[in-house]
Design goal:
Elements (H helix, E strand, L loop, with lengths): L1 H26 L39 E4 L3 E4 L8 E5 L4 E11 L2 E7 L7 E4 L10 E3 L18 E4 L4 E3 L8 E4 L5 E11 L2 E10 L2 E8 L1 E2 L2 E2 L1 E2 L19 E4 L7 E4 L8 E5 L4 E11 L2 E8 L2 E9 L1 E2 L2 E2 L1 E3 L5
Antiparallel strand pairs: 1-4, 1-7, 2-3, 4-5, 5-6, 8-11, 8-16, 9-10, 11-12, 12-13, 14-15, 17-20, 17-25, 18-19, 20-21, 21-22, 23-24
Length: 326
């Protein structure tokens, strides 16, 4: 009986060993791995939803030529997509002009724009992303009412004040072609055109030996940037009581710096532009020319600056005397 029990136990043990070997054989890869091979666990596959919509939202109502303002810190790109090269980074808000668009790409409306001379043309995104905040905003319509323009017939020779910007188009957003120095003489070709609240004139002007044709703003009512031509009086009024050696200073209320010229006369070469308060010493004069009394002066702070300055006319003098201290 004891022998029978031992036999049964041994038989059960063998059966268990065979079952374990069979189970192990079922989970073991029977194919031998090549040397250097690695077993890597297979990660579960995740499908990420596409964040970029196939279509764009309705674009802003912009038209070619319309102005727009930007948020600070945006990119101008070479093409209408987020993977294109950045042409320029605009750190501050700026006014641009729409050239074409919109182009829908990756769920974003894009506009090709240009700006001032220091901004390269490029493409700007209308929004950060689909449904995100706007990066550009249409400029509200500027004033369409302009002051009564000056009388500048075509062919008129007009003097320019304040170092005027000469632009490619009659608008504040127009590309700046050059800056005409104060006192430069321009020939009127066309105008006026009312835009951005200013009257604009198409002129021909020479700057540093180069000829330019472009648009200049006439200025504000009562504060023109362009000198309306007129026939000066043939006779000058009595001059101010300057004498050689007396001192004076530039003084004006028309916001227009005054010219120091190489000779007495409005067409003489412009040497310097004198702002309000510049002091001088009289070294000669007066000379009557073009209806003005002209004084030969030397600028006290710049002894090398010597030339002729017009005193103005009664009621609108551009210079004043300095009383001697006692």
């Amino acid at each position: 009986m004891a022998r029978l029990q031992r036999f049964i136990v041994l038989a059960l043990a063998c059966a268990l060993l065979l079952a374990g070997a069979a189970a192990l054989a079922q989970v073991t890869d029977p194919t031998p791995l090549p040397p250097g091979a690695f077993l890597t666990p297979t990660a579960p596959a995740f499908v990420f939803p596409t964040a970029t919509p196939a279509s764009c939202e309705p674009p802003l109502a912009l038209a070619p030529g319309q102005r727009l303002n930007t948020r600070p810190g945006i990119n101008l790109r070479s093409a209408p997509n987020l993977s294109s090269a950045v042409v320029q980074y605009l750190e501050n808000s700026i006014t641009l002009v729409a050239l074409e668009g919109p182009v829908c790409q990756s769920g974003i409306n894009w506009w090709r724009v240009r700006g001032p001379a220091n901004v390269s043309p490029g493409w700007v995104a209308e929004r950060e992303f689909f449904g995100g905040r706007y990066l550009i905003f249409p400029v509200t319509d500027p004033a369409t009412v302009c002051p009564t323009p000056l009388t500048l017939p075509v062919g008129t020779q007009a003097a320019l004040f304040n170092g005027l910007r000469v632009r490619a188009e009659p608008a504040l957003s127009g590309l700046v072609l050059t800056v005409a120095p104060a006192g430069a003489v321009a020939a009127v070709i066309d105008g006026p055109v009312c835009a951005d609240g200013f009257n604009w004139w198409l002129v021909d002007v020479t700057v540093l030996g180069l000829a330019y044709r472009g648009w200049v703003a006439e200025g504000f009512a009562g504060r023109p940037f362009v000198d309306e031509p007129g026939e000066p009086p043939a006779v000058c009024s009595p001059p101010l009581p300057f004498t050689v050696g007396s001192r004076g200073f530039v003084s004006y209320r028309d916001f227009q710096p005054k010219s120091l010229r190489a000779a007495p006369g409005r067409n003489a070469e412009l040497l310097f532009t004198l702002i309000d308060g510049v002091a001088f010493e009289v070294i000669g004069g007066p000379v009557c020319a073009d209806g003005f009394n002209w004084w030969h002066v030397q600028i006290i702070s710049r002894p090398d600056a010597v030339g002729w300055i017009a005193e103005g006319v009664p009621g609108t003098y551009w210079v004043r005397g300095i009383r001697a201290r006692r």
